[in-house]
Design goal:
The complex is a heterodimer. Chain A folds into two domains: 69 residues, no CATH class; 338 residues, Cytochrome-c3 Hydrogenase, chain B (Orthogonal Bundle). In chain A, 44% of the residues lie in helices and 19% in strands. In chain A, a hairpin with a 2-residue loop joins strand 4 and strand 5. Chain A starts with a strand and ends with a strand. Chain B is of the alpha/beta class. Chain B has one domain: 3-Layer(aba) Sandwich (Rossmann fold). Helix content of chain B is 27%, strand content 20%. In chain B, strands 2-1-3-5-4 form a five-stranded mixed sheet. In chain B, helix 2 crosses helix 3. The longest helix of chain B has 18 residues. Chain B is globular and about 35 Å long. In chain B, 55% of the residues are buried. At the A-B interface, helix 4, helix 5 and helix 6 of A face strand 2, helix 2 and helix 3 of B. Chain A: This is Coenzyme F420-reducing hydrogenase, alpha subunit.
């Protein structure tokens, strides 16, 4: 007898994808997590275009995290042209990136992932059963929006970022006007963290290889060196020597592995484990008081770390606003030349790496973009294998739910694609 | 910052995904001096943040193929209860237009009036242009949006 489980839509994952599982004699014999990712299309689209188009075009890869793509592209061009931006530009980039983290993390924590832990079918029920959480999420999200508007020029598809810096620097008064809302947000982020820290996670602990950027001073967001839980310390240009992507027959996405073939994890749990000593003391203390360990190895705890990161970036945004001096000039001049440049930032979902090869006139000869979800894909499959094997006693619906929840641990931005994720489980006793 | 007094039209879409771009393309056919025109990717919390407190909001989006590409749909959210979610099953977002409307209702954060216009799409491939049927429907879609956004024109 074969039991077959089929789900038409896997909700609350941004984008589209599918999961196919076959179980025989209590073991998972096949598991494929398929996703659709558009960076390959954008890499082709970029070829032949001027370097200055890259931030704008790549920002369209993902509506949720345009800054991650814009900034990675801008940094790569600056690297190729030997340009170093001023500390003021760097600080303003970090501020707008804080806005993006707030927006992306709050949406995922409160609206997409929390319902799993509260036993609710969807976020619509959240608004009825936990209106205070949804109200808080909405207001935090608005603040993130506002930061993107004031610094990025627009909340959706921001237009103010360019290679070398910004087209225009916001006035100090415009940023100071956000200060009262940031004060509210600091308290709200603490409440949100307390709420999700009390969630009871399913039991799953794994010995992950964590990979994240590490900055010499800050909790890595806009840049740093490549670091891992095994002590890796390398410049971002070494990424292709250390990590590989290969195409799976089931997917348009590339699967990332280390050069010796191992799965690794990027994103909140990896950053937390690698950069815990770079957190603001306030965040570290708050998290510790709520029982968040310095290294969290249960992927179902990622929601808690995401919420702690919201507190981190809200507090950072407060400081950046207080210390803000408009960069003058708002962008450093850029002189194109032939060469190769790399850029890497910590997108909300994890490390996002760019490399461009450029001609004398600055036109793009070759583009390569490695988004976080592609890197996490083999780890998501490994998690799912364990989730299914441990969950075989669950009925079909409960097992499907658990698989969806496990996929959502990674907030997989299967990207701003269309359509939905399909889930099939075949049970062969 | 005081809200823009003009009626707000939100065009939802992804510019590189075939007919998904219809909601963005229609904004080019509307008068920017008399309407506030906002392109948007359709993420629901962002939509609520945009529209709450506004007297009149028109949302334009592509809808899943339901047999007739280019066919126009109009949903007055004051009347259509429950909202027909099936039209927007192909939204990019897990928390999209339909969820934004339901959540906005539950929290009392809806505009005074919200009307959704949709055009049935046909193709969603990455890099594809609008299908001929949807491209041909854009002027009629713009006209329908105008009739709601600027009824006294």
């Amino acid at each position: 007898m074969t039991r077959r489980i089929k789900v038409e839509a896997l909700a609350r994952v941004e984008g589209e994808g599918a999961l196919d599982v076959t179980v025989r004699d209590g073991r998972v014999t096949a598991l494929h997590f398929r996703i659709f990712e558009p960076p390959r299309f954008f890499e082709a689209l970029l070829r032949g275009r001027p370097y200055s188009d890259a931030p704008d075009i790549t920002s369209r890869i993902c509506g949720i995290c345009p800054i991650a793509y814009q900034l990675g592209a801008a940094q790569a061009m600056e690297d190729a042209f030997g340009v170093v931006v001023s500390p003021e530009i760097e600080a303003l980039r970090r501020l707008v990136y804080c806005g993006e983290w707030i927006e992306s993390h709050v949406l995922h924590v409160a609206m997409l992932h929390a319902p799993d832990f509260l036993g609710l079918d969807d976020a619509l029920l959240m608004a009825k059963t936990h209106p205070e959480v949804v109200e808080t999420a909405l207001r935090l999200k608005k603040l993130g929006n506002r930061l993107l508007e004031v610094v990025g020029g627009r909340a959706v598809h921001p237009v103010n970022l360019k290679v070398g810096g910004f087209y225009a620097a916001p006035k100090r008064a415009e940023l100071l006007a956000l200060r009262p809302e940031l004060d509210w947000a600091a308290a709200a982020a603490r409440r949100l963290l307390r709420t999700v820290a009390a969630f009871d996670p399913p039991d799953l602990t794994r010995d992950y290889l964590f990979v994240a950027l590490r900055h010499d001073r800050d909790y890595a967001i806009t840049g740093g060196r490549l670091a891992s839980s095994e002590g890796l310390d390398a410049p971002i240009a070494a990424f292709p020597d250390l990590f590989d992507e290969h195409q799976e027959p089931n997917s348009t996405a590339l699967h990332g592995r280390t050069r010796d073939g191992r799965a690794y994890m990027v994103g909140p749990l990896a950053r937390w484990a690698i950069n815990g000593d770079r957190l603001l003391p306030d965040v570290r203390a708050e998290a510790a008081a709520l029982g968040v360990a310095p290294v969290e190895r249960n992927p179902f705890r990622s929601i808690v770390v995401r919420a702690a990161e919201v507190l981190q970036v809200v507090l950072e945004a407060q400081r950046l606003v207080d210390a803000y001096r408009p960069p003058d000039p708002p962008a450093v001049p850029v002189e194109p030349r032939a060469g190769v440049g790399v850029g890497a930032t910590e997108a909300p979902r994890g490390l996002c790496w760019h490399r461009y090869r450029l001609a004398d006139d600055g036109s793009i000869l070759e583009a390569r973009i490695v988004p976080p979800t592609a890197q996490n894909q083999p780890t998501i499959e490994e998690d799912l294998r364990q989730v299914v094997e441990r969950g075989l006693a669950l009925d079909d619906d409960a097992l499907k739910w658990r698989c969806e929840q496990a996929i959502r641990n990674y907030d997989p931005c299967i990207s701003c694609a269309t359509h939905f994720l399909r889930l099939k489980v075949h049970r062969e006793p | 910052m005081s809200p823009d007094p003009r009626p707000l039209v939100i065009g939802i879409g992804q510019p590189w995904r075939g007919d998904d771009a219809a909601g963005l393309a229609v904004l080019d056919l509307l008068p920017a001096d008399r309407l506030e025109l906002r392109p948007h990717h359709g993420e629901g919390l962002g939509l609520i943040a945009l529209w709450e407190g506004r007297p009149l909001v028109v949302v334009v989006d592509a809808a899943c193929a339901a047999g007739t590409p280019g066919r126009l749909h109009r949903i007055d959210t004051a009347r259509a209860t429950p909202f027909d979610a099936r039209l927007f099953r192909c939204s990019s977002h897990a928390f999209g237009v339909n969820e934004a409307i339901a959540t906005g209702r539950a929290l009392g954060r809806m505009p005074a009036r919200l009307i959704v216009h949709a055009v049935e799409g046909e193709r969603w491939d990455l890099g594809a242009p609008l299908s001929p049927a949807v491209a041909a429907a854009l002027p009629a879609l713009a006209e329908a949006v105008l009739a709601d956004a600027l009824p006294a024109r």
